[in-house]
Amino acid sequence: MNRRIIIAAKASAVMLACAAISAPDRLAAAVTAPEAGTRGAYVTQIGDEHRATVIQDNPGMLAIVHQQGARNDATLIQSGVGRQLASLRQLGEDNFAMVAQDGLAASHLVLLQQGVGNSARAVQSSTLLGNTAAMTQIGSGNDMSLVQEGDGNDASLLQAGDDNRMAATQNGSGNMLTWMQYGHGLSQLDVTQGGGQTMLITQTR
């Protein structure tokens, strides 16, 4: 059984939980989020050959990474002065997630991938108001990317199925995006919002 964890935190408390846990009660305890108000980096890995990298340069940030299965890879970079918060959860095999948060305001992101060979990337940058995002992929071979540059943007992205693609960019302030895809091999769409826009997209097959 082989695991690799890299954590770099400046002026930030770091706690690690990385153990092979089989009993249901211990498993439940391992994946429970830290108490409200807690800051630092929390990594839980269950299974084989996972890789997690967390980099923080602000003591007020919170990073939560949970990986279960085999060969999942997560990278989380938090910088700036905002109280950034991110939770990455990967269940299955060969999933990849990369999240970068930066800026003066606090951005929040929750990402879940469940299945095999999914890939997700997100970048959040803000100055006055933080951005928020929820990203979910369930299935195999899905790819998702999100860029939020501005203030007060909100995105909710969901893919369920296999071999689907989506890419979204929010520039400016006050954009809202809800995007859901259900099926297999759906046509890739690239969505860009320029400020104060609201969009609801549903694609099925």
Cα Rg = 17 Å
Q: What profile does the largest beta sheet have?
A: 9 strands, parallel
Helix tally equals 1
Unreliable parts: 1-34
How many E-type strands?
Answer: 17
Strand order within the widest beta sheet = 2-3-5-7-9-11-13-15-17
- Taken in chain order, the helices and strands follow as EEHEEEEEEEEEEEEEEE
Helical proportion, percent range: under 10%
The tally of domains stands at 1
- Which band does the percent of strand residues land in? over 45%
**Average pLDDT score:** 83
**Alpha-carbon distance between the two ends:** 40 Å
Q: Any idea what the shape is?
A: flat
- The SS-based structural class is mainly beta
Summary of the model, kept short:
By secondary structure, the protein is mostly beta strands. It has one helix spanning 24-31, and strands spanning 4-9, 14-17, 40-48, 51-56, 62-70, 73-78, 85-93, 96-103, 108-116, 119-126, 132-140, 143-151, 154-162, 165-173, 176-184, 189-193, 198-204.
Task: Summarize the helices and strands and which ones pair or pack.
Blueprint: E1 4-9, E2 14-17, H1 24-31, E3 40-48, E4 51-56, E5 62-70, E6 73-78, E7 85-93, E8 96-103, E9 108-116, E10 119-126, E11 132-140, E12 143-151, E13 154-162, E14 165-173, E15 176-184, E16 189-193, E17 198-204
Parallel strand pairs: 1-4, 2-3, 3-5, 4-6, 5-7, 6-8, 7-9, 8-10, 9-11, 10-12, 11-13, 12-14, 13-15, 14-16, 15-17
